[in-house]
Here is the input.
Amino acid sequence: MFRPMPVDQSLVGRAFPPTQPHEVTEAAVREFVAATAGAYDGGAAPATYPIVLAFDAMNAFLEAESVDLFRIVHGEQRFSYERPVVPGDVLTATLTVTSLRQIAGNDIIGTTSEITDDSGALVCTTSATLVHRGAGS
Amino acid sequence: MTLETQTFTITRADLVRYAEASGDHNPIHQDDAVATSVGLPGVIAHGMYTMALAASAVAAWFPGAEVVSFGCKFTHPVVVPAEGGVEIEVAGETRSVEDGLTTVALTVTCGGQKVLGMPKAVLRVPADD
Here is the structure.
């Protein structure tokens, strides 16, 4: 049976390179709202829109560590906002691995992504717990 | 204060659209074979999709409010059938209003089962004119 490697413990505390700048377009916000049963009034992006940035950062992290996305299940997500995301923002996310535990053959990976605008100001901090379903699950 | 419960239906087509909008193309949200290979009962909704629907409910309850924080655990998968859809219910209750911040505790269920753990939003609600 294929047993994926556990994630390397030395990752804890490591910050990954910032993602490529992502321009928040009104079209992208409209589509995100439409895809999530919302109603768009032309203002701020929905509360969970920053996941677009956080997911980009997570994908880069998983690729760098050769972790298969299909083995990842989401355990927890928290956002705290300095200000709403609005169309016209140019954002990047910087992901740090904050914790790593192995439970029942699964890796429980804690990450925090700081999302900043093109002036360098913090817009949103979002933390995620990712469950890597590995050997034995 | 108890808020009016909102119901959403989730179909496989909704998951495809959400994957495009969010960039989350994890095949466990599209492909039964991949989902079952990692021990899931079948294709499940993105946890973030369910969370986004909860956020849409909050936005409908509090138009114009600024979200200060929002978080939850993903405690139970929402299995989405290949045909038809599955309903989730988003219930909410205002827990406190202090320092200009309104805390809303949510209960998100699918078939009576809670699917999100302790979902909570803190809002800055515009004052009434």
